[in-house]
Amino acid sequence: MQETSVSLLERIANDGRDDDWQRLIEIYRPFMYQRISSYPLLVSQSEDIVQEILCVLIREMPTFHRRREGSFRAFLRTIVLNQLRYAMRRTKGNPIAAGQFDRLNEHIEQLADPSSLESIEFDHQHDQAVFFHAASIVKSEVKPNTWKAFKKHAIEGQGASAVATQLGVTVNVVLLAKSRLTRRIREEIRGLVE
Question: Is the Cβ–Cβ distance between 84 and 41 less than 8 Å?
Answer without folding.
Answer: no
